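User:
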Amino acid sequence: MAATVSRTASPQGSELLLELDDQRGSPEPAEARSSGDESTAAASGASNGSYDADSIETLEGLEAVRKRPAMYVGGNGSDGLMHLVWEIVDNAVDEAAAGFATRVDVTLHRNGSVEVVDDGRGIPVDKHPDRDVSALEVVFSELHAGGKFGEGAYKASGGLHGVGAAVVNALSTQLDVQVQRDGYLHELSFKHQKPGLFENRRFVEGSELRRTRKRSKATATRVKFLPDTELFHPDASIDVGEVRRRFRQTCFLVPGLRMTLQDNRAGSAGGEPFDFVSRGGLTDLVKDRSSVSPVTGVITLNGIETFTEKVPVEGRITEVERECRVDIAMRWVSGYDTDVAAFVNTIPTPAGGTHLAGFDRALTRVVNSVLLKDNRKLARMARQDKNGKTKATKDDVQEGLVAAVKVTFSEPQFRGQTKQELGTPALEGIVARIAYEQLKEWFEPGGGPRSQVKALSDKLADAVMNRVASKQMLDTKRKAASLGSTGMPDKLADCRIHGDKAELILVEGDSAAGPAKRGRDSEFMAILPLRGKIVNAAKASPKQVLDNAEAQAIFTAMGAGAGDAFDIEAARYGRIVILCDADVDGSHIRCLLLTLIHGYMREMLVQGRVFSAQPPLYTARVGDRTYRAYSDGERDRITGELCRGKRRPENVRWQRFKGLGEMNTDELRHCALDPDTRTLRRLTMADAQQADAAAEMFDVLMGSDVAVRRDYLVENSSLVDEATLDI
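Assistant: Predicted structure:
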């Protein structure tokens, strides 16, 4: 019985037909085998401590890969397992990038095997001129064998080392290959790296291909492999989300290529396969990653240059000329994060390399020499700057930048088999020249839209000013903190001892500060009243945060810096206690304080050193007992319990505290300051993330921007008839 996969493969109407006889069987896990037997002499030499010619061991064929898999796939965890998938997929994508394929289909099977099908030309199946076996067998069984050396079969490709397919075979218990070309379906299998065919479910070693006549002229390659679980960590797995992200990215790099993914593994969602295609290339990639508040449109840069490099040709070092194409798409958004992706041919290079170094260098240089050359904001600062700090740095110019940098050329030099960093030296200069000249044209009059250029100039100038101001502010805070209490804010009522047991209690308003100071234990409790609005650190720039008087007071009192420079070991207090009114305004201030701590003193939250005191909203005295309620619902519940007898509800007189300042010293001490009677709630990272969202909502609903509030109410109210609104 045979299982058949059929599908229309290309716009020309050619059919992709791949058949697999069930007599070969699906790959099944096999017993662990040793990666190579050591010779008797070598074992003897090791046992007696001698070191001679018999001690030298040679690893033949794929044995080296099995013995040192991390050298070839980067490790034996999930990353290494994913790398096997990328090796086969990248070969298929190279066919598409060369113009010979239109789709790549990947299936994750229930038994752990991975199947990759492309409608490219098909791996060559004729006899290799230097081997007595087919080229197909050579590709999967010999290291450094492939069609990507030089500029023969591929002008530019992702697989350059000729080890990818062979490494996948080396780290698999079974691998099946089907190639359709020249009107035939050619089949070859590998079991424990040995070539052969399955006959009635029995594997027979041999190098002969099974060939079946097909009427279709379609071409295709199908590779199905079962990773050797004995060589990978038990928890290693293929992350379907990561595969989908990589596929989307690849489709942006090869416009018109359709990639699909079907996950049939046990426990997976299954369902419809992931299916993606892009027509716009890098422009679509940048748009996909920069959907919010763009400052500029997508800027595209491209060019072609040639360079020479010395490579071995027939045993002699020879200078050869290469052609390199550079494609860049980029835009700035209003945020502060940087998202720059770099690629070589179809391969992402997350560690960067010479091409990204060239882009970074050109971008910083052109922004300083052209865009910010006559900026008035920086000119005023420059008159006071003697150290060149007003020059934009790499971090300044890439604040809010979303970019994709791709270079396409033959035989790139990667630093390592996993191809995460480009090492070809000439590429730095080529990318730098193309990026500089074309960005210069866009920045100058007659280039990009003047409104966008002006907005970008202001944004990057603000980035420079924020950096300089932040550095100055943090330096000042560190100096002040090192002075002890004499450098502290005037409104701080400090404690006598500092360290892990000390508390910094942040109190809302001066009215609450008086009772808090009288009711505290001054041995280890410090009181810092907050007299103004706390800045919303979730949406403000670092400069705006550090310019805020209340934020400055908190940072100075803590004495441990802020942001990336925050050092919890240097903190003067071991915990922070937030003491705010039990009403909406108090909740707003608590959210803003928590957002500030989350953004600039995060380690305090991580280590569980931030607390919120829980003052009551109502208090009532009935007989000789005092009752406290923290919400309207709790007040009504207590009233109901007290009135079960003959007592009337109106006889239970509740006092509502409008603020902490209305409490006397004893009440405030009992509910918020005395460690034996108070109630504190430990705040976590999850609370901080909720506070970020709450602070944002407070700004929308209670802030000064009427237009934003109007838009929010219109968009989120199902009870409002828009036709009745004057908008």
